[in-house]
Specification:
Keywords: Calcium, Glycoprotein, Hydrolase, Metal-binding, Protease, Secreted, Serine protease, Signal, Virulence, Zymogen. This protein is of the alpha+beta class and 685 residues long. It contains 15 helices and 31 strands. β29 and β30 form a beta hairpin.
């Protein structure tokens, strides 16, 4: 019986990895085939009744994109260090043109709907040609999709219309990502009360940093690194990762940090932190980009409201130095909140509609007509992406459908094509999901579940997932770190949705061949074909953070993610100063053979969860700390110790020689020597 269950589980994983939902599990209704199916009713919901046949039920068909099957190949072309196109990033216009749905797709879906009795005035193609909207009744929708719509209620009192499964003709399926409303359940569940709260499925749900309480900052030195096993300060991080660098191309660069309302920073906390640990930061504020009514609210205060933002900004702004602008993307109003897709909408206006865009069952919708809500239009293409964007929030992968996560993951690939580095925290519960819940065989998530529960977007192969380490008790910053085992455990494991990307195959195959986990196949995705995470790590324990006028010790991958973001921002500074492109999507480079030894390998610790010890940190990549922690001097020097022309100025091993000040013969001799010396290092970071 156990063997049968294991085989069934492996088969399930293979199906999910193809980004379908148990397709073809039922006999097709000719000429229809199953498109999406929900296996269980989400926790908190209960079935009430069939939906009224004559009630209005507008349908929206998310059309598939052109070239989406080639997106990894296209991204590798500009991101892999061995590619001749490395660093030749795309413009936003090129991205839009490359992935717009084809006219064939639009015509096929539209004609099929018209052939089923809908008048032309009830069938509309959106302006960006990514959606087809149909003005339908429940009865018409059920006939068109071969399904039954039902009304479900939540403990909060909210009702939702959904179906268990729906079908599409086989010739239409390749043209449609998904249909709404259908099997998707509301992940927003905004609680309308006097006090805002994170909603189930919101980015902040269960993934916030943790604190063990207040500490007396008087006892903590801003420069002494002898107590970094007890208190992490900016000085500790600079010592751990060799971040001794002053940016010089600040006008060309910016570091982006994303926060979701009601989480917000306090300027008084930044000032308090500056007085103790960050000279020059006093009075400095991030450059705020408001998205969908986002602002730094001060009505609600406390660690739950200010801890995340204070942490991200105090350390992010300090590590890139006050001279470098930090951009704060503040997303969502105080009532509706927001999701990752709402943030992506603001970066790419076409995403609001084409490629499926928002799903009203998952994403906040604006204008928000509730009292106190943001009454302006949804932000679509109103924000410019910075070259590095750090986000310390996550969902559980199982909170969302494979189609939904695949669509969002493709958007991160597009940002990579444009030269943007996207960092997400991997989670704080080891192999368990946010809130320490694990999966059950029926797909539900509970505290006593036994199946490992990966987080998203950490499992998306087109972002860089960041785990957490620690300075071991009674150790120093000059000794190896271990996986974080204080208060939190570094999130990591293997995706149940996404296939293993080519860039990490060698590293993950080595791990599985030499350190194969001793767990039954029913507990984790043991196929050897799925995306492993995290990719890298940094310290995530004992951060001294100013929160609401006092200092607290803070833990989490929420700590490690902005640290890596700051380091990559400084690498971009060096590249921009040298006339180079930004690093963009870094995963193909950091996993490449040339990068061996440029990260500090972590070989101690594990990431417990789901009643197990989780995975182990091992030599090389592992699903606890990834490739390890950054070594800034090595990362910076790799690819920089070679000739680079910048308007008549040559940079050689960080020594600037202004050639126009030298005799012509000397100029030519220097160029010849340097070019020949560095010819073998023509590619790389």
């Amino acid at each position: 019986m156990q063997g049968i269950l294991a085989n069934m589980q492996s088969l399930l994983y293979l199906v999910v990895l193809s980004l379908g939902l148990l397709a073809a599990a039922e006999s097709p209704i000719s000429p229809y085939s199953l498109h999406e199916k929900r296996t269980h009713i989400p926790a908190g919901w209960s079935l009430q009744r069939r939906h009224e046949p004559t009630s209005a039920l507008p349908l929206r068909f998310a059309l598939t994109q052109s070239n989406i099957d080639n997106i990894e190949k296209l991204l590798m072309d500009v991101s892999h260090p061995e590619s001749s196109n490395y660093g030749n990033h795309w413009t936003a216009g090129q991205v839009i043109q490359a992935f717009a749905p084809s006219e064939e797709t639009i015509s096929a879906v539209r004609n099929w709907i018209l052939e089923n009795g809908f008048e032309e005035e009830r069938v509309k193609v959106t302006s960006n040609k990514g959606w087809i909207e149909v003005d339908a009744t429940t009865e018409e929708a059920e006939r068109l999709l071969q399904t039954e719509y039902k009304v479900y209620s939540h403990a909060s009192g909210k009702n939702h219309v959904a179906c268990d499964a729906y079908h599409l003709p086989s010739h239409i399926q390749p043209h449609v990502d998904f249909v709404t409303p259908s099997v998707h359940f509301d992940a927003r569940l905004s609680r309308r009360s006097d006090e805002p709260a994170r909603s189930v499925g919101k980015p902040g749900y269960g993934s916030a940093p943790k604190t063990t309480g207040q500490v007396d900052a008087v006892e903590i030195s801003s420069t002494d690194v002898s107590t970094c096993d007890e208190y992490i300060t900016p000085a500790c991080l600079r010592a751990l990762y060799g971040l001794d660098y002053t940016p010089v191309a600040t006008a060309k660069n910016s570091f982006g940090i994303v926060e979701y309302t009601p989480e917000a920073y306090l300027q008084t906390d930044i000032n308090l932190f500056a007085m103790n640990f960050s000279e020059g930061l006093y009075g400095v504020s991030p450059y705020m980009v408001s998205i969908d009514g986002g602002y730094a609210q001060t009505e609600y205060q406390g660690f739950d409201y200010n801890g995340e933002s204070d942490l991200d900004l105090q350390y992010g702004m300090t590590l890139v130095t006050p001279a470098q602008q930090v951009t704060l993307y503040q997303v969502g109003d105080m009532v509706e909140g927001a999701s990752f897709n709402n943030f992506l909408d603001a970066l790419d206006g076409s995403y609001c509609t084409f490629e499926g865009g928002d799903d009203y069952t998952q994403d906040a919708m604006y204008p928000d007509t509730e009292p106190g809500g943001y009454m302006g239009p949804e932000a679509c293409g109103t924000a410019t992406p910075t070259y590095v964007i750090s986000t310390s929030y996550s969902y559980n992968e199982a909170d969302l459908t494979p189609f939904y996560t695949a669509r969002q993951c493709a958007e991160y690939a597009k940002l990579g094509l444009m030269g943007v580095t996207i960092l997400y925290s991997s989670g704080d519960y080891g192999v368990a999901g946010n809130d320490d819940v694990c999966l059950n065989p029926n797909g539900t998530q509970t505290a006593d579940g036994t199946m490992f529960n990966p987080t998203f977007p950490g499992t998306c192969p087109y972002i860089t997932s960041v785990g957490a380490t620690q300075v071991n008790p009674n150790s120093t910053v000059y000794e190896p770190e271990s996986a974080c085992e204080q208060v939190i455990y570094s999130g990591g494991g293997f995706s149940n949705y996404f296939a293993m990307p080519s860039y990490q195959k060698e590293a993950v195959d080595y791990y599985l061949a030499n350190y194969y986990p001793d767990y039954p196949a029913t507990m984790w995705n043991s196929t050897g074909m799925s995306r492993g995470f995290p990719d890298i790590s940094a310290n995530g324990a004992n951060y001294v953070v100013a929160v609401n006028g006092a200092f607290e010790l803070v833990y989490g991958t929420s700590c490690s993610t902005p640290v890596n973001g700051a380091i990559f921002t400084m690498i971009n500074d060096a590249r921009l100063a040298a006339g180079k492109s930004t690093i963009g999507f870094i995963n193909p480079t950091i996993y490449s053979t040339d990068f061996s030894g440029l990260f500090n390998d972590i070989t101690m610790g594990d990431n417990p969860g789901c009643g197990t010890n989780g995975f182990n940190a091992t030599p090389g990549w592992d699903p606890v700390t990834g490739l390890g922690t950054p070594n800034f001097p090595k990362l910076r020097d790799f690819g920089y110790n070679k000739v680079t022309v910048v308007s008549g100025v040559y940079l050689i091993n960080d020594i600037t020689i202004k050639l126009f000040m030298l005799p012509v013969k000397v100029q030519l001799a220097i160029v010849w020597l340097v070019v020949n010396r560095n010819a073998k290092h023509a590619t790389g970071f």
